[in-house]
Amino acid sequence: MAGVDRIVPDTGALxxxxxxxxxxxxTVTLSAGALGALGAYLxxxxxxxxxxxxxxxxxxxxxxAGAAAAREDRCALSPCTLRKVRAFxxxxxxxxxxxxxxxxxxxxxxxxLGRSFRHATGQSLWQYVLERRAQRARSLIERRPLTTLAExxxxxxxxxYSQFIAAFRKSHGVTPGAWRRRRQAQ
Length: 186
Fold this sequence. Notes:
Elements: E1 3-7, H1 17-23, E2 26-29, H2 32-43, H3 53-75, H4 79-91, H5 99-106, H6 110-121, H7 125-143, H8 149-155, H9 161-172, H10 176-185
Antiparallel strand pairs: 1-2
């Protein structure tokens, strides 16, 4: 919400425009949207030549950088929460879990967890879940050579066989069947 906190009034006729900057102090609180709009207006050159243009541009830039840093901090996922999320995923890999289930276990909103997890790890939460399931499937293929791939898909928590094949191929570069044949040939 925008609002003016304090204004020091003009004390008479000014000889030079820069005197206005030296004699007038204004403190204004702006929302992030209003701050962005003000910055865009100033950068457009509409205020060119006015005495307050450069100091205001610098203030808008500094405030914008501070707001970005604050957003970055709000987006950070604590190491403890990240461990909790990973542990939950590991414990429930074979079950039908969703981002909302993981977020609930971490006591966060699904949106915040998704954004924070990507920021902390460089991949989306769902990509992480699929990757872990593909790794579990690879391990099951190696340890259970007589189990069908459909059963391995189910034991790994994949909703469908096609999801299993796609995630496995993305994670390992080959289909599960090709992986099994390579392992058996060794």
